Queue: 4 jobs
Job 1
Amino acid sequence: MTGSMRLPGGGRIDRSRPLKFTFNGKGYTGYEGDTLASALIANGVHLIARSMKYHRPRGLMTAGSDEPNGMVQLATGARTEPNIKATQIPLYDGLEASSVNVFPSVETDIGAVNGLLSPFMTAGFYYKTFMPSQLFWDKVAEPIIRKAAGFGKAPTEPDPDVYDHKHVHCDLMVVGAGPAGLSAARAAAATGARVILADEQAEFGGSLLTLHREIDGKPSAEWVGSVVSELSGHDEVTLLRRTTVTGLYDQNYLVALEQKIDDLTPSSPANPRMRVWHIRAKEVILATGSHERPLVFADNDRPGTMLASAALTYMNRYGALPCNKPVVVTNNDWAYETARTFKAHGAEVTVVDTRKTVPEDLGTEMAHLGIEVLADSTVTGVSGKHRVKGVSVAAKNADGSGIAGVSHSIDADGLIVSGGYSAAVHLFCHVGGKLSFDDARVSFMPATGRKALACVGGTAAEFGIAAAIDGGAAAGAKAAQAAGFKPGRAGKGVQVADDRADGNVEAAWLLPSGTAPNRSKAKFFVDYQNDTGAADIALAVREGFDSVEHMKRYTLTGFGTDQGKLGNINGLAILAELTGRTIQETGTTTFRPPYTPVTFGALAGRDAGDMLDPIRVTNIHDWHVAHGAEFENVGQWKRPWYYPIDGETMHQAVARECRAARTAVTALDASTLGKIDVTGKDAGVFLDRVYTNMMSTLKVGSVRYGLMLHEDGMVYDDGTVTRLAENRFLVTTTTGGAASVFQHLEDYLQTEWPDLDVYLTSVTEQWATVTVSGPKARMLLERITDMNLDPADFQFMTFREGKVAGLPARVFRISFTGELSYEISVVWHHGKALWEAVMDAGHDFGITPYGTETMHVLRAEKGFIIVGQETDGTLTPYDLGMGWIVSKKKEDFIGKRSLTRPDTVREDRKQLVGLLPEDPGFVVPEGAQLVNNSVKLKDVPHFAPPGLDGAPIYGRKASPVPMLGHVTSSYWSDALGRSFALGLVKGGQARTGDIVYAPLDDRTIAMRIVDPVFYDKEGARRDG
Amino acid sequence: MLLIPCPYCGERPEIEFSYGGEAHIARPQNPASLSDTQWAEFLFMRGNQKGAFRERWIHTHGCRRWFNMLRDTTSHEIYAVYKIGAPKPPAPGEKPAAAKKPATRARKGASK
Ligand SMILES: [Zn+2]
């Protein structure tokens, strides 16, 4: 049905500003001040979407963030967003939206066949139907369900918008700007307190934007206007519209999402699309109002079905008439205001009241207005596939358990429901607030909460406007006082005409009907978004899922983007009835942030692209870039990986770089190595306690390699220690481990041994380091330094200070390649000058820059470990064959005691070994598992990829193969002319010569266990 | 995210800090004298209390100092922060400890 349902006057829309928009490709017109939802209703469009599981046609149920059905795909291209609630989209000119979850169209949807399959899609159907066969799930069920069950489409292009974050402190945060929130903010602001007031709507006023009341003789809209203008006049007050507080956390920390741009205006850093507010408040007042509940009866989801409060909002606030012939079903007085308003706009109204008796004054008024009221009645069905056509109504029987007589059908084009109101206690519960169920108000209420947190108005199940305003004022004044401000004058109570604080609500959840939900072909929906019905809850209870948290997971109640704002209370009330417990005993499921969905772009804010993580580069970085290096990320550092020339592959480049290191001379930028200066008269004692070997005996000018363990005996980091002076050492760490090693050392120094006179300073970025390595390294260095480089004088594992290339330098004779090497450190900003001097001086020796990949190959040929590659936090020095570095003389060091625990002395621990593939041309992938037998991967059922042998494998008994360990490093060696590897093998140190196997996808590789030192076992090359 | 009152810098956001586990578990003076069971007790066993809990924190991206915190593990309320080696402040409902000299071996305090 289409055609204008716009009322001739009224509402808060600007009729002088028409806006054009399209929905599912069809053009419509609305007005400034409309939401997409109100504009669609004004155009007579009710069929908005299809439900998730059964693909039932659905329309708008609400006018707010509790909307379960009316989700659309908004905008197109890079800005497209799925699952946005039409009720929360302010209309703009050129808006494009379409239905989600439909194919090919919302009117004719193929997925509706799911509705026919519904007997098989009851609660728990995912678990039951598909668990017996993994293959069936992977190949058949999951792809179909994924396609059918998705909501909308994510954009495929990068998000073009800018988002930002803002951190603020305030005295009082008021959430919600309805009568209670406005009143609380005003009272606190009057004391001079810093107040932030936020509301999810574009306009402040909350329920007063819908309810026409007189407050102290003034129309409610005028009251709202005067409070807002008073608040705007305070310098210390921040008013946030279109801002949803999505979470309340410990210490009154709140996160709010502000929608700054709703239309297609491009965003910029100065004008972001959305802003995430991080608010720390001394006091918090929750004035988040309440949510109306639907009632549960047969086919209560036909398009045209709507909450009474929503219908009133569409009429009063947006000037849009939801229907011409509504049936209003209610268990309270409040819905009569909607009936009355419909009637005033010329609609033909029938009221079905589930209560035994209707208050006399209401009955008289309705009779006078010509509205038929059917008391003590119930709804037994709703007809109309794409729009409500008729409502079946019957009188309840004497005890209210069923119906008396037969149903009769009332022609209708709309069904307006009201099951009473539930306090919106979500934020209160985010911080562990406890609830109690109030039988008179038929709502959960805040009971025990946190300090400095108050609930007012609807949040406290106070449904009257005077109570909300007065309660808000009192709470606002109290909060300001608690935050240290002088209490202001006590406000007098307000007078609200026709307040209707008490709705005489009588609990009703699942309405009585002729047929129980589980015997009926009709659906009695509880959670619209997840298509959970009353029958599903009954099934969950029958199958033993009768705790509220189990029921939620088994039936998916409350799992949708509306987070069960509509359906949760009905669901647990039905559960309570079925299990013979009270609602209080049944309890609620846990409320968790966010209150409404938050887009990822907003969460990321500016931390995207290059700003995602700091990028650290060395002083020589530009040279590497200019010379075509490929880079590798090591922690936050960019390190040259290899330097391809003339279109070389990585394999070719690395082989060339390796050859240069073994035959000529090479240079490596080693500036990223972690460096810690350890100073103080107890520095030696301290290092003895943190390394496995003795450091205090090191002579000034000497260097020693060391291992650090954690207290559990496992290798944690390695590096060198150089004694620069009697009380001064330089410790190097791995590039990636620098920060954590520093923290580890500080921990022991500050908390365990504060009596030691030791000071730690990180000097990683004070020293740039160039490693010159290769048989011609000395010849090169002689050209740029006057130092005595004679190996008899400047010995291996010693250090000198002097000048290199005219720069003050520290030169260390340390070798990670096995070749003659000099590590030359200069002040950071001299790094590039040194590097270029080395390159110049080495030109005729064929100097070759090399990257981390070549470094890894060269060290592996020598059997040197890389912490984090050979080790994974489960290996002792003995496991690594490095018992030689564990001091027997020292009484104690960190981790020593753990090296004699029963578990660390087991003989079948995984141990480091060398591995030579029997096929010398094949480089085994790192991470390959090692086993004893030559099994083929596809012959091991446990590993067979599903479907490979055409049979389902789920549940088939696997025959596991004992795992021995894995390959940790594996390369092609130019020097050896073959492939080689390092790996961990159970008891491997005693198995030299044995063959182990690496089963791969398409073949099995035999490898022989060998000594892990492959090249220059004698160490003859380190002196050049 | 908590706002943590560093005893050296004042209130700073939690993101600047790192957690260091339960406090007042002193490293044994002479590990070699302990049985495997006693050593395992020190190495692996932690209280994992519900409610008031003493724990270690470091202001990693600030003053880099370790300190202790008395925090409720259910409400996350921070009752007290105190410097390494300082006497333990009492938990809510707990009697203040008798005044004694601050321990020199301060990690996790000296008392067992
Ligand atoms: Zn600090």
Note: The longest helix of chain A spans residues 465-482.
Job 2
Amino acid sequence: MYKILKAELIADKIYLMDVEAPRIAKYCEPGQFIIAKIDEVGERIPLTICDFDREKGIVTIVFQTVGASTERMAELKEGDFFRDFTGPLGQASEFVKDDLEEVKKRKYLFVAGGVGTAPVYPQVKWMHEHGIDVDVIVGAKTKDLIILEKEMEAVAGNLYVTTDDGSYGRSGMVTAVIEDLVQNQSKKYDVCVAIGPVIMMKFVCLLTKKLELPTIVSMNPIMVDGTGMCGACRITVGDEVKFACVDGPEFDGHLVHFDEAMKRQQMYKTQEGQALLRLREGDTHKGNCK
Amino acid sequence: MNGMNRIPVREQDPKVRASNFEEVCLGYNAEEAMEEAARCLNCKNPRCVAGCPVSIDIPRFIQHVKAGEFKEAYDVITESSALPAVCGRVCPQESQCEGKCVRGIKGDPVAIGKLERFVADWAAENGVVPEVKNPKNGHKIAVVGSGPAGLTCAGDLAKLGYDVTIFEALHEPGGVLVYGIPEFRLPKQKVVAHEVENVKRLGVKIETNVVIGKGTTIDELLDEEGFEAAFIGSGAGLPRFMGIPGETANGVMSANEYLTRSNLMKAFRDDYDTPINPGKKVIVVGGGNVAMDAARTALRLGAEVHIVYRRSEEELPARAEEVHHAKEEGVIFDLLQNPTEILVDENGWTKGCKIIRMELGEPDESGRRRPQEIPGSEYVMEADTIIMSLGTSPNPLIASTTEGLETNKRGCIIAQEDNGKSTKDGVYAGGDAVTGAATVILAMQAGKAGARGIDEYIKSLEK
Ligand SMILES: Cc1cc2nc3c(=O)[nH]c(=O)nc-3n(C[C@H](O)[C@H](O)[C@H](O)COP(=O)(O)OP(=O)(O)OC[C@H]3O[C@@H](n4cnc5c(N)ncnc54)[C@H](O)[C@@H]3O)c2cc1C
Ligand code: FES
């Protein structure tokens, strides 16, 4: 059992939790994820790590309610427990493994969309702790959906916040900010790291391809075990099929087959919907409306 | 009774069971078991024992059953096996103990597997548990993986007095027994959980949710966490795909995914959150036990199911009993056929499969006749779900994160058969991680060998 030390609603439908998980906190690195299971009947839910405290043995996760399982997870409070909490899973971000001197020479641009701000945060924090200033773009649909702004501000070199509807910060999509920085402000980057909804990552990659800016994305496909056992998390990268849970979750964004990834994410949508209905209306909606 | 035929075992009617997840085989009751046990000739040189990978004293336990001494029978079995209720259900007895039975020359061999199952079930129902005798010796041993290899190794070591902790990546212990083999062949609560509980009763600790090699490594267990030796029983869980066009379409999945959703995550039950796409028309590609399990699961979830296999019935690697059960329940066998492409609709969903007919040519290295395509014989079969059951290989995670642990070119950990010794000092291995996908009982045999090897190793350190 893994105790929840803090549970907060940080934006509309977006929750932050601190979970006691010393084995994970001891080893996890930016880029990796965990799998949480609420109770006996819950699903295994993969979530990227937002922050960790090795000494206190705490891992921080952030999630948005998108289906029955995350909705149920949102009901957990401080002092409650997850039945299962496994990790760290997946590969750490490339820069963690690269030679630090090499990393220091590169100019990084981080692009975070919506709840994708959570997995970007530990990467920017890592950079900050290693004395590297990076530029960070955080985008969201609207003001109320901007998360972790203060935290990000504390570790980012330059922070650019934008909202699609212009209700806060700049107005427009993250791609408009990238264009502005590169084309109008003549900023030069060696690597872009973009994490957010698949559709956002797709459009960022279309743009950075044109700008010849190498881009890394973090994929969040459907997963079951998260250890390479099932292949549910298959993703086509270039002409290879990869298992995101063990080979990723971060991949070369210019090679990822985003359209396929989006279709695969939809796979259980109808069933998720049914499960959600069941949760809200009790037993009236069974499986395939048997 | 002339003793030629075995006492038939009761099974659920095929029509009824094809739509439920209750156990197919109902097992013997006490009278039936005693009657069947009476068929045993109690041979002086029992060939059955030689056929059992863990050398259960079969005639001795059967004589106890014959006399109605079920507790004594259980004690005999548990001297050699930690998982009798599992083995009685899933072992390929026809090619092991029963295959060697003298009775089998002129009639049916004694139903050793069904008797083993009866004894283990009787013990569970009557609260009889294995005895713990040895005092603790204070030596700490780590076991990675809680499948049959890991459980057996841990159990044997605990019986010798070792302080054993099993680290398991998933949230439930049992390995393939919980995530692969379906409920209708191996009930999870009644059988698997109960036998895992018996292993714990011997003093074995199980820490779930720890993926060794991600975070904690074998080296850290040995160097930092105070374990003196480790046994790796991490199985062969990595699924293979065909590499044909369309394989990443929605609705195409590995048998491991399909079975894990249904078994470990209990998608077949309404009270669990796990989604599963039951499929209306399902193609299962492959002919092994795993393919039969996936097919029979899909059937129970309400689909029309076709097994597509590239060789003929004779070469089906699945146990005869499984094939027989699958056919009885209504699985359709399309033999000598092989998929060449998966057809995908505009939303990314599987809508069918291009299949080519095959014929058998000359025998290959394995001695089986090599299937070859018949040119121009391609046709399309409609399907919304395609389950790939093409075998699995060991996960490279542990080998790639453990200094000095070598694997062969198939990715299997190199270990000696008689004691499980790997290429790294103090590290032992066995089961599917070493052999590639095999059987429960062979994994148990390897677990026993590993326990012996570790015991010798620790004793050699003390000298
Ligand atoms: C669907 C199916 C049906 C089968 N039917 C039969 C049958 O009828 N009869 C039969 O005899 N055999 C059958 N088999 C084969 C049999 O189940 C296996 O040969 C046997 O389970 C192998 O045992 P094992 O202990 O080596 O590995 P496994 O049972 O695979 O257990 C390995 C365990 O290690 C864990 N693990 C892996 N990596 C790590 C890590 N890094 N850290 C921590 N834990 C880890 C895994 O999660 C797993 O729980 C079947 C297999 C399948 C898939
Ligand atoms: S989630 Fe099962 S292999 Fe990646």
Note: The first helix of chain A runs from residue 22 to 27.
Job 3
Amino acid sequence: MKNLMRMRTSLVEEVQNILNAQVEIEGNASQKYLAMATWCDRNGYKSSAKYFYSQSEEERSHMMRILRYVLDMGGTVVTPEVKMPKQDYTSIRECFEVSLESEIFVTKNINKIVAASREANDFATEQLGLWFVKEQIEEEYIARRAIEMIDLLDGESMFVIDTELGNIRAQAPAPFDAAEAE
Amino acid sequence: MLCNQTQRIVNLVKQNFGIELVENEKGGVYQCDKTNRIYVCYATTVAAFRIDNFLNFKRIVDGVDIHQMIYNLSDDCDYEIIDLPNASKKIKLTLCEIIHLRELLESAKFAL
Ligand SMILES: [Fe+2]
Ligand SMILES: [Fe+2]
């Protein structure tokens, strides 16, 4: 009897389920950043809004990266439900705190992908997971640094704080494996 | 019991490289290594699925809200319309039929 399942896909069920869960998590992350962006936008924090809009798109691209991978490997993806994220924040600091919490949650789940793929000797999925491990270093760093900057800029006008936060991406560290590139 | 036409197709599938995954008085599921298809024969329906669509079909059947069917008294809750993935067909199943079909698909998946 042919192994039709293996002929169709190299993904085992557990790995496919975890990847589908991650598709949903990245989709939700995109929605969360979108809500933060609109909150910042309507409260006059235009620079932060710009950052969160772009972050929202980046999360969607993460979702698509996993979705396309599962399909390329012959698996089945579930397009996730759109959930309404938290709409109101007490301050711009709270936005970045929620975003840090959210990134920590994402990191934990990315680690599950790597762990499950190692368990299943699925080194293709491990590679995908490792790309995200590196991405999460940057994401957590930025969120943490933003909160730190808000604290350091204590006493400055909200306009200055917002402008500084708008350039937060420039604060990201160079990828650790690019240190010896030059 | 399978209807005559279904029984005929089941026999045909079995004769032509059909490998029995499960068979009971309600129906049967067979793997055909010639076409790489899973044949689900149940009640008056025969459907040939690619393996991933077979599993998606199982997911759909498993996902039917049985409690809603039991407790909702309106007429359209007496049965559920189920999509057969990429088989250009929908089937109408009663509560009992869904439970029997679940059993059949579960055993078939186990035998894969
Ligand atoms: Fe992400
Ligand atoms: Fe990023």
Note: Chain B has a mean pLDDT of 89.
Job 4
Amino acid sequence: MSVLDSKIPAGPIKDKWTSYKDKINLVNPANKRNIDIIVVGTGLAGGSAAATLAELGYNVKAFAYQDSPRRAHSIAAQGGINAAKNYQGDGDSTYRLFYDTVKGGDYRSREANVYRLAEVSANIIDQCVAQGVPFARDYGGLLDNRSFGGVLVSRTFYAKGQTGQQLLLGAYSAMNRQIARGKIEMHNRHEMLDVVKIDGKARGIIARNLITGEIERHSAHAVVVATGGYGNVYFLSTNAMGSNVTAAWKIHKKGAFFANPCYTQIHPTCIPRSGDYQSKLTLMSESLRNDGRIWVPKNMEDVMAIREGRKKPTDLSEDERDYYLERRYPAFGNLVPRDVASRAAKERCDAGYGVNATGEAVYLDFASAIERYGKEQAKIQGINNPSAAKVYELGQAIVEAKYGNLFQMYEKIVDENPYKTPMMIYPATHYTMGGVWVDYNLMTTVPGLYCIGEANFSDHGANRLGASALMQGLADGYFVLPYTIGDYLSDDIRTGKIPTDSPEFDQAEKEVKEKIDFFINNNGTKSVDHFHKRLGKVMWDKVGMARNEKGLKEAMAEIKAIREEFWKEVKVPGTADSLNPELEKAGRVADFLELGELFAKDALTRNESCGGHFREESVELDGEQKGEAKRNDQDYAYVSAWEYKGEPADAVLHKEELEFNDIELKQRSYK
Amino acid sequence: MNLTLKIWRQKDANDKGKMVDYKVTDISEHMSFLEMMDVLNEQLVGSGDQPIAFDHDCREGICGMCSMYINGEAHGPDRGITTCQLHMRMFKDGDTITIEPWRAKAFPVIKDLVVDRTSFERIQQAGGYISVNTSGNTQDANAIPISKIAADEAMDAATCIGCGACVASCKNSSAMLFVGAKVSQYALLPQGQVEAVERVQNMVAQMDLEGFGNCTNTGACEVECPKGISLENIARMNREFLSASLKG
Ligand SMILES: Cc1cc2nc3c(=O)[nH]c(=O)nc-3n(C[C@H](O)[C@H](O)[C@H](O)COP(=O)(O)OP(=O)(O)OC[C@H]3O[C@@H](n4cnc5c(N)ncnc54)[C@H](O)[C@@H]3O)c2cc1C
Ligand code: SF4
Ligand code: FES
């Protein structure tokens, strides 16, 4: 029997959240003043939670490793945020958003959570507009929408190519209002290094002041971890340099189960890597697939000619191009979900059709869109028989208005003008669907310890649809956690302040200090990055877009070996009592080196292909779906929740069986 | 290419600090500036020296962490970009590059190239918000149409990443462009009207308190701003401030 209780409320899916809210215990306003909550992370999830909890009257202490909450990695999200508003009248509804998300996640998410997400999605937009978030509007002054991969409606709200920035600045402004009122105590440039448990409950954290190096104790009645995803386990990813698993991993080691670590999203449209010095990869928003067409040359001679610089992509005629997504998936074309698009790019490049020197790039072409928009504009402006140049000029203006900042970003990095020549793109690690296991209340397996946003596992199954992470982060923080945490805290109204001089705090602080001292005194021979890069290579080669039993077993052994060498040979210069970025990295890489092994183990255990997790052993052998990923609902329709037992390889698997009552389990087809 | 780097080293806030010379070799023109700094730091770690501390995170020009003053320009020689988006193709073999932190009284140095920008935080806390609770019981998002022009202009102002290059570029260390951008965003939207008077007064008062200088319209900030925040935002803030003073 599983020890996992997902606490899904009874009743029809449409009523679960409402009737749950009607029945939970509340904390009266006078008592909220006596309750402290720690929120670690100030991205969309943490920032929105901190602001809302403070508004409700709790005393919030928030933490971020950057110098301002506004710089959390959510700031980088480009494309947009989904909401079932049905403003376009194209048939959207709460149910459809729910359905799309469950299907997009390849039927590996928890129905009740996803339904609630879809249900609160519309409120997010109302809320953000009230905060002054400048979403894109049409000429009538109403909100505009675009469509994203894997769905057939336009439900994505956006603010140019900077949606995450604007949403985060909205949450940040709400936080600022509470900081000014003294309801949020903000700790910038602080890193959480452990959670403190007292009588089995989360009661505080140990954090390092990154400027002074001081190790601090902070207590609270509940702790919320909102520290984002762990994509940097691959070294190269679209995540910020500081994105890490540390907080999530530390709570895992203290009893929080870690769910589905192998569910990782490799995003199809990123700028290809260019050299060994590369420090990160840059995403080109998926919204580009609304208008860009993806292709490689049909003929190998053209591939070679392009690689050697004898031909340009624009020299190739339409019938010399293979628009492989349109060919393979006529119904969804360039807008298939991310996992499908990424694998298709890999398939073409593995077959030798990659268009750059490394052989790992495909084209994303805007010529058709520019022409289409140009003609449309000419008509609107009453220009008869416009010249090709005029059409191009008009069309380019539209494309620029939609994606200008992305095009500029591309040009600055690659030094090529994407209006004139197609962009080159290749898949890169982008998002982690897996994360800390939480129940319907977003509470982990440790009482009083919550996990929200990308750091938890709950809503996206094995693959996340575009524009759904921002939605989830804000849903968790603004609308879900503030209710569910009250139910737990209603027992704590008489507890009083949690002292920080207890043996539990002593012990946690001691462990943290010992680790830091170890790094400073180890005097090894190799830098932290050296180990991180090696880990990343194993992860990409053997636990990347395609996985098999042999590779995964090798990966587990290799990661373990790198980890052992790390603890012997790592070299961290500088001191513990000052700003020391190398020391910060050392702690994070140490945790990635443990997570990586569990990640491979999880992938090994799941011998099916689902969403972003593709096992070469599990593909359709014939029929219309031949060669596509094959899910196995008979044996694997569960969440893998891992319990820490020392070495990552010894982690114990707990299964949360997934029940699908409102959606029929089907093979995903985007054909 | 091979380069000589002259970099500001300062142990901590109390240290006096000085410029130190370093050499890097075999730098590819495709590298970003920060990747070049990574190469130098890897070199320093290897030889047992202290790597250079600098702020960075997203490395794609949006978080506003990175903040280097390169050859006398905030975010270096290119336009419309942050330090992390600067590429080595902007330099040539044999160049000497001078790298300093933002210099401003309101941005004290923490270490090497890292400065303390919490003064910006306090300005935002003084009024950079609309007082609406995040309860979700607001009206429908489409209840008030907002003209596309106003929405787009508000968006342009809202793209400020809070990097501080405007302050670093200004001979008076004025923060008018940064504050003007936030005031403008709300001034352009109906949601911002209710608190317009208090907002501009409080934010400007906090700005003065933090020790930022006055604006003398040199326009240096606009030139170096990576997000193209225009001087119009300063003009708009001045108008808001004036009308706020008249109102009370
Ligand atoms: C380039 C890019 C583009 C994207 N575009 C989209 C999009 O268009 N639509 C969409 O829906 N999703 C998008 N996503 C995904 C989405 O942005 C993220 O999943 C989401 O923003 C994560 O939010 P979060 O609040 O969970 O975490 P984050 O925003 O990552 O915040 C993490 C917070 O935790 C803090 N932190 C981390 N570790 C510690 C620690 N140990 N101690 C203290 N603090 C810590 C950080 O300081 C930060 O404040 C994109 C992601 C990337 C990388
Ligand atoms: S106005 Fe420009 S330069 Fe100043 S902080 Fe904002 S983005 Fe940076
Ligand atoms: S590192 Fe984020 S803007 Fe440069």
Note: Chain B has a mean pLDDT of 96.
